[in-house]
Here is the input.
Amino acid sequence: MKKTISFVLALLTVLGVFSALSVSSAGPAKVGNVRQTYSARKSVKIKWDAVEGSGVTYELKLSDSKTTKKYNNIKTNSLRVSGLSEASSYYAEVRAVNGDTHGKWSDKIKAATCCGDTTAKQTKAHKNAVTLSWSKVNGASGYNIYAKSSTAAGNTYKLLTYVKDALKAKVKLKSDDFTSDFLALIVSPVRAVKGYKAENNLSVLSDSCTVNCPKIIPPKANIPTYSSGKLHFSVNSWLSGVKYAVYELGGSKVISTNISAKDKSKASVKFSPKAGVLYKVHARGYVNVNGNVSYGDASDIGYASKAPTVSFSWKNGSLKTSWSKLDGATGYNVSLTNVADSGDTVKVKNVQTESYTFKTSDLKGLNVNKSYKITAKPYRNMTGLTSGTANTFRVEIIGHRGCMDEAPENTMASYERAYINGYDTTEADFWETNSGDIIISHSQMLEQCGCPDTDVRTVSKATIKKYPIIKGSHVKDYPTQYLPTLEQLVKKVASYKMKLLLHMKDVKMSDAGLQKVYDILARYEMLDKTVVLSSSIEGVKRIVNVKLAASFLYVPNSVDDIKRCIDFSARNRIGMMIFKYNEYLSKKYTDYARKNSVRVGCYNVNDKKTACKMSNIQADFLITNNNYFT
Here is the structure.
């Protein structure tokens, strides 16, 4: 009989039946990945990976140096345990249970409750920061400082900084992080436990003291305009609690304060400039909370109500003119105007002094029987000013890839900075992806996202959030930026009431893709405010064929190249010519281009000397990486 039983057992073992029965009797698998996911003053939350099998429940042991508490019949893979001691450490173990069988206990992990409360207060307000101080908490290894918008629903916090071995800190804030009027700052004690990695939300919900402080940087006003005895300006997002003040040149004289919104975004203030004075005015937002005042950035404009009176004298056949100096003016357009014949301007000279002598050669062709008027009209380079009745010239400022020296290029943050800084136009590079989407990116490979081996054409709007921007100017200030779609960009630029220059990076993109660009621009009524750029003849022709306004980027080899290029543009319906280098461009060729209905300018203009040259030769536009021209 014994031999028979042995033979059966051996046969079962060979067939795998005995082995299966042995595994089944061992109970559920060992629980893995046990971790603490939440901590409060007197409670913790423990979570673990679920074990496969129907009817599986769990047991949790939580122990300190004196006692062990056991929690049975847990039906989910997590448990919040309350009634613990604050600022205390524990060991947690979990095992799975299936009926009468038990799995092995998991590896022990350390868990900890938070320490007690602190009281905090704001002690000082700065332009873009506040100073906080708080009381010491026994058991705390440091303090997390969080920000929460005052109107945000639920517990939406952002960790600003961690402070160790101190009870005071200057906390920097950025308006771009929040959309509400004011912020709440929360100081929360933190306990560090060896071998225990705290998660971001670990101590946020412990009791703590909030501090109300002003929103540090109110929205910047658009460039003001002057008409009918009033200054007019607007703000993209006018926040309650934020008012605006208007100042004269240098901020030494206040024109008006406590300016509030009208029509949600627009405001105006009475202003009576003196004749013959060039003013520089800025609108500046501010908030005042409990005596703490914080000012935003200023938007500037300069203008003169009237041109200065010109005196003149004849000497040796020359006409000498002079006028009083106008503070703030960088030059004057001096003109001889034929009073009798419809006021036609006969001669115009640009000078940077307060006098000019018309030589004999300047006066040739003047009729001695007619009357002429001499005027000196002030202007100021690169500020968008108007000079009273003078017809001053202004160069259009195009932000290269947004405002790329203030935010990562070709991101929505960069385009917002271009708007805030008062750019007329913003430039963006676009690609067609394999999914048929149009994505904004300068490079074909996603180096900006830290993925130099990934081609932008393999990305779609559905997968774009897999590639956050990690490189670029001030990237740490904009931690959640992604490559935008063309539609996102066009919609935003349309709301800004700006113009758009789009660079088609791939001249071989599909006809359907190029048509999609047209359709998106039409949808947001941006066709007449957008120019599409290419650096190849093939690309320009395709842009024109789809009935989009075209621009051509060209690298001139000589002075003669400039004229040939303008002639080519005029023949091929190219309304905008961009030259990569500026040394050959002169007033002669900007005038020639204007006669042929071609707008000309340069990229990239990143120094003031070249910018002034663009203004002096009356280029139509310049493209820049910098923000100081606005």
Notes: The chain has a mean pLDDT of 77. The longest helix spans residues 2-15.
